[in-house]
Design goal:
Strand 4 (about 130-135) and strand 5 (about 135-140) form a beta hairpin. With about 180 residues, this protein is of the alpha+beta class. Helix 2 packs antiparallel against helix 3 (about 40-50). Helix content is about 45%, strand content about 10%.
Length: about 180
């Protein structure tokens, strides 16, 4: 399974902005995950071949960052920050609320494959804690009520065929 032409074209289009092939690794991982929903070992091999990097380097980077999913995920990836600022502002209650609402625990995906719930270490939103990400979109200053509204909207959008949690993404432009 080779990289798609869309991914190759996107990366080749930004190649001149990056000093080395290794510097292109993060955007290439992002593009693969955006297209496939996760980064498989086969994808890592393809990325390594495309960027002339050893598989060990690609795997090292992909496994270091929690933003890269190394297993299939739900279509809606709900990541709730549980670092100190978010925790002190009620993140534990948000995780419990989301778990109850979705019928899964952190680290699990719903049986229908729609939602994955994760606790993450930091979303760099300490001043607006508690925070979460729905796919690529940030939500801050959360309460249990706002969390439920966001999850209900995500379900409604997903059920109607809309793309969820990628409001800031622009095709053909990276980032």
């Amino acid at each position: 399974m080779a990289l798609s032409e869309k991914i190759k074209n996107t990366i080749n289009g930004i190649r001149h902005q990056f000093p080395t092939e290794q510097a292109l690794l993060l955007p290439t991982l992002h593009e693969v995950q955006n297209e496939k929903g996760w980064v498989s070992m086969d994808s890592m091999r393809d990325i390594g071949e495309f960027l002339n990097l050893p598989l060990s380097k690609v795997r090292e980077v992909a496994s270091f960052y929690t933003m890269y999913k190394l297993e299939p995920q739900g279509k809606v990836d709900v990541q709730i920050c549980t670092n100190i600022s978010c925790w002190l502002n009620g993140a534990d209650k948000l995780v419990s609320c989301a778990s109850k609402k979705l019928g899964i625990h952190a680290g699990e995906t719903t049986k229908d494959g729609k939602f994955t719930l994760s606790q993450v270490e930091c979303l760099a939103a300490c001043g607006t804690a508690p925070a979460m990400m729905i796919n690529e979109d940030y939500h801050e200053n959360l309460t249990e009520e706002s969390l439920i509204k966001i999850l209900d909207q995500a379900k409604s959008d997903l059920d109607s065929g809309k793309i969820v949690g990628k409001d800031t993404r622009k095709d053909g432009v990276w980032p």
